[in-house]
Design goal:
30% helix; six-stranded mixed beta sheet; single chain; alpha+beta
């Protein structure tokens, strides 16, 4: 099962403290449980680890993501978050597309609200798929790996 394919992700997350790793994995399980038919796309960058869900293998079709930049919180975001409703105004970001919330712990995660936003973001992603989109299901796909993590970044993360 893709949800159980954690070897690479755990390796990528190892630069972060244990609490952040567990929070990121908890959020991951939350999305997998709701969208098991989608694919997880993992990006290990020199200063962050990000993984998102898409009905295809393309980043442009992603509807939600989890990003770990440091050891204070984890970002739970929406690729086209500017196009979904946010009546409670919980989403952060002012860019043309991406919106997110900062998650500090499972206890501060607004699950019922996020569940509604996820459904809208998923429907929006599906509506925007190109007619020739290659649908694949339930895969974990590592899209990029940063071979060298900057020593300064790692030192900062370990604080």
């Amino acid at each position: 099962m893709p949800k159980s394919q954690t070897t690479d992700l755990i390796k990528f997350l190892s630069a972060f403290n244990e609490d952040i790793q567990q929070l990121a994995l908890w959020l991951r399980a939350y999305v997998w449980d709701k969208y098991p038919q989608c694919n997880e796309l993992i990006y290990d960058n020199y200063n962050a680890v990000a993984f998102g869900w898409s009905p295809t293998e393309k980043l442009g079709d992603t509807f939600c993501s989890i990003a770990v930049y440091g050891n204070k919180d984890v970002h739970f975001g929406f690729y086209r978050g500017s196009q979904i409703s946010d009546p409670e105004k919980l989403l952060l970001g002012k860019g043309s597309q991406y919106r997110y919330i900062k998650v500090i712990s499972p206890s501060n995660f607004p699950e019922p609200y996020i569940k509604k936003l996820l459904a809208e973001a998923y429907a929006n992603s599906m509506a925007k798929l190109k007619p020739d989109a290659k649908m694949i299901e339930s895969q974990t796909i590592v899209k990029s790996i940063s071979e060298l993590k900057n020593d300064l970044v790692l030192l900062h993360l370990k604080k």
